[in-house]
Records
---
Amino acid sequence: MGKDNTRFLHKEIFQRVNFLHQAANLVLKTDPSNIELCQHYISTMRLVAEKHVIRISPSIKRTFCKSCNVVLVPGQTARIRGRSKSEPHTVVTCKICGAIKRFMWRKVYELWSEKQEAWIDANKREKKS
Amino acid sequence: MTEKQQSEPAQMTLPTVTNVEIYSSLEREDLHSGKNSMNTSQKKSWLADFTQEHLPANRLRSNEDDMSNKFLSTSTSRRYKKRHSKQKIKVSRSIHAKLNHTQRKLAKDLITSQNQKYSTYIPLRRLWTSYIQDLMSVDMSKVTAPVFMTLAQKMMKADLHGCPLTVRRSKCPGYVGVEGIVIQETRNMFTLICQDDKVRCIPKANSVFTTVLQNVVFTIHGNQFLVRPGERAAKKFKAKSTIDL
């Protein structure tokens, strides 16, 4: 168990973030009118991550609205459109509060977690232990 | 301004015939003697005299010297009034500004207004049990005392949304024995949904809750749990020898 802790810091917190994200999705799926509860779960999820200085993975972070904390489900709480003006991109609009997310269609764009630099740190830690 | 001063003592009396008498007995010079130019202390003493003179006898107690509680305020300057009214507005605005958009939305009562059903939250409970088993990562059937300590530590940091809770003890006897799934946890409240499809809000303070995981019983002392669920994970709990309630 000690070795696990050195390799995987804050494991409980990641589990909790994961659970809260799933719960928010589940609540919205079972009862689509219950938006407030979904918002509550996402806001606590963000608070937990903020308190422990943990980065929420982009795959999770892109599925909720930044300003009203609702899970963005296409067709239900979000509208997704492609636009080609100036630079081709996707626009995700929150239907609850009207906030906008834009994702560019850049071929060279790479997420931080997918870059080589992000992996070096973990390898070093493994070697030390 | 003078008019205002004189009408104040009249307001204090009951609206009966005496009111009319007071107005009729007002002397002309009282109205037009330039009371505006007096300073505050002069105004006060003048008002005291005036009230003593014109109030009906049943309103005056014997040997009462201080008349200042019989009339409202002596300062009638516009600037003073303006300042005071502005301060009030400032306070209310600052409270409103502290809440951002989402918090204001959350401040509304969340779930109690809608018709909720117990059956819709059964999947949530199932999700929670799988989460908590994953978190504990120990076989529950054979738990020894030292292992239980670490389990309790983990339970403190765990999330309670979807957890089946029972109120064991409470200062309010109406809450005792309530059983349900936690659908929302706030700083001071657990919101439970019970099997009779009712949403019950139970304050954490002054009550004791229990959860059962297979054959291990966890007891949650509500008084020690008065933290927001997100902040609880970062909080350090201190071991206490004695616990109230």
---
Amino acid sequence: MSGTATSLSTPCSILLRQPLGFSRSSSLWTTKHERYGRRRANDFPAVTARLELKPPPYPLNALEPHMSQETLSYHWGKHHRGYVENLNKQIMGTDLDGMSLEDIIILTYNKGVILPPFNNAAQVWNHELFWDSMKPGGGGKPTSHLLELIQRDFGSFETFLNEFKTAASSQFGSGWAWLAYKANRLDVGNAVNPRPADDDKKLVVVKSPNAVNPLVWGYLPLLVIDVWEHAYFLDYENGRSDFITIFMEKLVSWDAVSIRLEMAKAQTAKRERQDLKRRELEERNADDDPVVEMYLDSDSDVSEAE
Amino acid sequence: MALRTLLSRRTLAATVRPELGSFLGLRNLVTFSLPDLLYDYGALEPAISGEIMQLHHQKHHQAYVTNYNKALEQLELAVSKGDVSSVVKLQSALKFNGGGHVNHSIFWKNLAPAREGGGEPPKGSLGWAIDTEFGSLETLISKMSTQGATLQGSGWVWLGVDKDLKKLVVETTANQDPLVTKGATLVPLIGIDVWEHAYYLQYKNVRPDYLNNIWKVINWKYATEVYEKECPVH
């Protein structure tokens, strides 16, 4: 238990001061520091916190006829399980063992130079959100605050629908299409956004290849559709666009998206409070520091213009 | 097949405005059509089911051809208007759909029913080159199967020859990127499709089983012909 944040390597210490994901398994967040400290202390035998295969929040036949039991039994029972088992094998006994899934994703994304456990870790996270994004008797239109935000940020629900469907159908190869909450966040560990504005807190539609998810860009995902062929091939064969239409009309769980929106907003508010605290602290410290002047080389990019 | 290609090229080409093309000094648009297979859909069973072959050829490959032709038409228009940003924007669709057409056209020739020589090891200079480069055919097969199995998402695993260095290479490409994206001098000998649509109906999530079985219908004779063309024996 003797490990402290100061003994961590740089990317981890940045990460610990700046939580990026928002996990439903919040216990992983709260115990993360101790867990990680224990791992680094090396005085103890490895304590392995194996990541679990979470089942969908409904029986495997509950989405029939839009998503067959056969599809779900392979998709959850084989693909999702495979990602969990392979991830556990990859991280066992490493520094990643015992960290939250979100932390593993961000660390192994490694600013785009992907490390081996990334694909499995992100695929576990993506599939958990995908199961939660659907429900029996889903579809229809979102309500209240979520609908207002969709209308504010896309113009209308129909425009959003088109954008989302286009993102999902135009993702070349395997990947995902997302509705995400884009809070303002600088990609610098200890920085404070100098100009936070309400406009930054927007809903956006994005797509991503293979296992990549918007957590790595600092966005908070609310809804996802899996457009790997294994998600729809048994039911729709090559008809990806049919699958996307049915997903939006019959499967999407707007209740779940609404709940995640509230979680995302709460997470953002928490980040802002932390930013504010940090800024106050920095301002206090700045009074003690000598003034450092910086010179910018304004001629440096002239050659580009020729 | 040649006649069909010719006919459809003419028909489709006639739909573009030739007067605009000739006014601007552009060639008439050449469009592409789905090549026929040299064997029946069911002829590769049990390694690859007839259902997979039919869908793969008639739906997937057809979609790449259709969308490549569409992108070409849009490209022609954008070029004729001098609309550079549209030309640039079209590159991803051209690469994806054009690559899909190129890759699948090779893939069909890479396969042959077992009774027509599918799976028979390469003879002659390619066989020697494989032994020299990889130790044995089994080592090469195992290397390609492993790389195909671990490829994340959709893509292809290739045996190619570098036509300048006269050297065999194993490469993987993502999505529908053709082998040439890994080097301008690379010529594909064998390309194996590891998109899920290539095996899912039969092998489900077990891509390694598909990769294990596909060697039983690989057409090494075709690969040898391409190799000998690029690396003639003196």
